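Hi C.,

You asked whether I'd gotten around to modeling the 174-residue construct. I have! Everything is below, sequence then structure, no commentary in between.
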Amino acid sequence: TYDEGFICKGTHRVILNGVGPQKVSMASARSYFNELEIKNPDITFSGFLGVTKFVGDGKANSDNVILKKIGLNGGQLELNGNVEINDDIDLQKGVLRIIGDVLHSDGTLTFNEGKVTVSGDYQMQRKEKDSAGDVIYEASYGNLVMQYDDDLLEVGGTFINDPWWTPLNTLSAG
């Protein structure tokens, strides 16, 4: 049986440790790393980025990357550039730092004693096109889960909360 994308399981681990610029581009939304460690400070992600278990701390550039399922596992991930959250992210006591804007179109961002810092705007909306082809923003299918005192969301720009729905008791602390 074949599956679309780069799908890693078990103990599979990727370490990005080049000495020059590295570009990581995943064309399939189904692609993801099992374990990912970033040692090279000159990495650019584009397309989709999914990581079951992030190892350590890392910095990278974002070429409008779309974040899919991510488990930070207590690590720190800094992305320089705009990102879209389009699937579930569990900070697991980790820190996600975005130097840019966030468009949270789908998925649950679970803090679990973690922290998100966004230097620009945080939009909980979906980007669509109207019948004339112009970009419009509609209600997001995404939501936030902040249930611990240490959960923290810091936004340096505008915060837009336009959810399609919000589950009960998901914003009870932080």
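If it helps when you're writing up: The chain has a mean pLDDT of 93.

Thanks,
B.
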